[in-house]
Structure formats: structure tokens, C-alpha cells
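Human: Respectfully, please carefully check these C-alpha cells:
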Amino acid sequence: MAFKIARQLFVEGRRIEMQELAATLGVSRATLFRWVGGRDELLSEVVWSVTKPTFQKAQRKSSGHGGAFVAATMGHFSQAVIDSEFFGKWVHSEPERALRILTTNSTTFQSRLTAELEELLDREVNAGRLALPLSLHDSAYLIVRISETFIYADMITGETPDSSKVAQAVNALLR
């Protein structure tokens, strides 16, 4: 129930406050923390719950095969992330926390996204449509980092986020 309420708050663009969530659930803050871990862990789970279907939709929206398919998928995925109002609101209201959750190993978010991408790359490799420049894991991790660079460009370098650069860079890497 805590996750469901937190996810709804997130999608509505509202801040997830642990004390308020505990009160809504009629439990102590300590109980809530025992249930969901800390705020970062809860946010990571909530963000992943909207990220995975977004990534899957990006795959369905993409055409082609091999590196071109992966590049198109990452371009569509990146654009969906950039276009998400509730996601953008969270990232810009809590930039340090968001970048820590999304782009480091402080939570499971980045490793989950890397694993999803590994599955996609593995399918293309096993179908004989792609030869990777690095190991499967390293290729997936590098593509995730490339995506992060252009999705969060405004916070990292002050530049405008650009999903087309994600697709171009991934295409260049997997050519």
C-alpha cells in the first residue's frame, strides 16, 4: 500500500514525504522505513515502476534491427523521459537526490536499467544482428551512461536535453 500511494503521488507530480506517507497509512515513520527502506529506496522503486514500461514501450515503437534498433529504442526512451512532466518536476525539484538515485549505484535503479538493456542487446546479438564493441554488460552500461548524459544535460552541463544525441551516439557505438 505504501508503494501504491507513493507511486500515485509521484505520477501526480507531488513530493513524497515519508512522515506524511506514514500518517496516511496510519503507521509510525519507523514502521514505514522498515517496510520500504529509506526515502531513496522508495523513490527508486517508484521511478523504476514507471521506467520499465516506458522502456518496453520504446522498444515496441522502434523498428529496424541490430544497432539501429537499439539506437532507436534508446532515442524513443530518452525522449519519453525528457517529455515526462512528473518525472521532470521531480528531477528539477530534487536534482542531487534524483541524480544520485538515477545515475549511481546508491540504489538498484541504474543496475536495473542496465539489465533491461543487456536483455535487449543479448536478443540482438543472439539473432546475429549485432556485434558488440565491448562485453554485453559493459556495452549496456556505456549506453545507459550515454543516455544519462543527454537526458540530464541541463543539470550536468547546462545544455538542453536531447534524445536525438542519444540515438546518434548509440548508433555510432554499435555501428
